[in-house]
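Note to self: keep these together.
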Amino acid sequence: MSGFSPLTRAINGPNGKSDHPSTVRRQIISSTISQWAGRDVEGAANFVLTLSDGKERDRAVERLVYDVRRADPESAFDWAASIGDEQKREQMIRDTAYHWKRTDPDAARAAVESADIPDEARTRLLKHLE
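Structure:
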């Protein structure tokens, strides 16, 4: 985790306790992930893995999904499926599947069939992927 110390200090402040409101922290993390993923997707993904479950992590994952879905839709889909908030997870799975459909519709469909989303959402999404 020492490789993340400048980012961690930026988010949490030098004393390790954030003086930033949670919405500002999420914006800092999201912006940083976007810039980082443009240069080093693996490094950005490894940092996201260090985040605790919750809104900050979900926002970081969302940003990562946006940044990798064209180059690696399968990875983006897996990340989208890891979002904790059910509504946001469904939205990101749907958006990623639509992008993935352009390059590999069969793989997109298979991923949706096994995704952790309500059956009603799965049915709607599969219909749109036909």
